[in-house]
Sequence to fold (410 residues):
Amino acid sequence: MDFDVSSHADGHALQRLLDELGRLPGVGPKSAQRIAYHILGADPEEARRLATAILEVKQQVHFCPICFSYATHDVCDVCGDQSRDRTRICVVSEPRDVSAIERTGTYHGLYHVLGGVISPMDKIGPEQLHVRELLSRLADGDVTEVILATNPDVEGETTATYLSRTIKPLGVDVSRLASGLPVGGDLEYADEVTLGRAIEARRML
Amino acid sequence: MDFDVSSHADGHALQRLLDELGRLPGVGPKSAQRIAYHILGADPEEARRLATAILEVKQQVHFCPICFSYATHDVCDVCGDQSRDRTRICVVSEPRDVSAIERTGTYHGLYHVLGGVISPMDKIGPEQLHVRELLSRLADGDVTEVILATNPDVEGETTATYLSRTIKPLGVDVSRLASGLPVGGDLEYADEVTLGRAIEARRML
Fold:
C-alpha cells in the first residue's frame, strides 16, 4: 500500500506531515492520514498549540541530575519534594516507568532511572547505565531499601539480579516487585491496580 | 484512570503535550503517553521536523477554489493537471475521500468536495455544502458524468439521492459507487482494491 499523496491536491506539506507522523510509535499509515486530516481541518490555534507543545517539551524537559528521570526544574519534582520518603529508592529502567508507578499512588519514596537494562546482545552493561550514580546515592546511609522495578522480562530480571548482588553487600535491603505482573510483559502497560498490588507485595531478595 | 503526570518529574510541558496529543483522533491517553515519551527520547531534530510539518501544513494548504479539495498552489494538483479527464466529476464529502480514490489509481477525472453531507439533524442542507459551485461547474456542458462517491451510510445516500435528482434534469449522467463497499462503513477506510472495483462497477442512477 502506498500512501503517497504528493501526486494530487494535498501537495508536499501534507506528505511531509504524513512522513513525520508515521515515525511515531503506534501510528501506522492510516492513523497518520487520519491525524493529518484532523490537523488540516482543525482550528489553526489547535495546530499551533500541538506544535508548540512538541517544541517546548524538548526545550524544557531534561534529565534530573539526581535520579535521571525527566525534570523541568533543576531537579525533578520527586527529588525536590521534601515530603517524599528518602529512605527508599525505586529503581526503574526508563522515565516512563516513573510515571507508571506514580499513577498507582502506592509509592512515596524516591526513584532512580537506569536509562536502560543490562543487555549483552546490545553491548549494554552496568557501565552504560546509571548504576554508579545509584551506588553513590546509597553511600551516605540514608537509604534503607532499594526496590528493583525493572520489567519482568529477561533483561529486567538480569539487571535486577546484578543490582541485588551489588547492593546487598552494602547493608541495604533489596526488594523486587511482586509477581502478579504478567511475565514477559511491559511495566509501562500494567494497569494501576495490578502495579499497585505488585508494589505492596514486593518480596525481599 | 488518571494520566496526570504534573505531580512528578515530568512537569507541565509534558502534561501540555499529553493534552494536545490526546485531542488527535484515535490517540487515547496511553497512546498519547507513548508518543510523548518517544518525542522526549527522540533526536531534537526529529521533534523539530514534526512541529514544523504541523505548522507548514496549516500555512501552505488551503482549499482549491474550483473543487474545494486541499491545494498548495492556486488550484489543487488534480484541477491543475491538464491530462485529467475533464468530462467526469467525482463528488465526495471530504478532501480525505479524494486521497482514498486517488490511491486506487482507477479514476482519472476531476473531483468536487462537498465539505460535508446533507444532515437535517445537524442543520446541514445543500446550502451549507458546495452544491451551488458544483452546479455552476456543470453549466458549461463539458462534464458528461457525475460520479456520486459519498459514503454508503444514511447521510451519504440522502446526499446522493438529492444530487441525483438535481443533476439528472441538466442532461448529465449520474452514477453511484457500486455496492461492494460495506454498508454503514466509511469510504476513508476501504482498501484500495475494493474501492477501485466499486468505481469500475459504478451503477447508473
Notes: Chain A touches chain B through 72 residues (CB under 8 Å). Residues 70-204 of chain A form a domain with the Dna Topoisomerase Vi A Subunit; Chain: A, domain 2 fold (CATH 3.40.1360.10). The two ends of chain A are 51 Å apart (CA to CA).
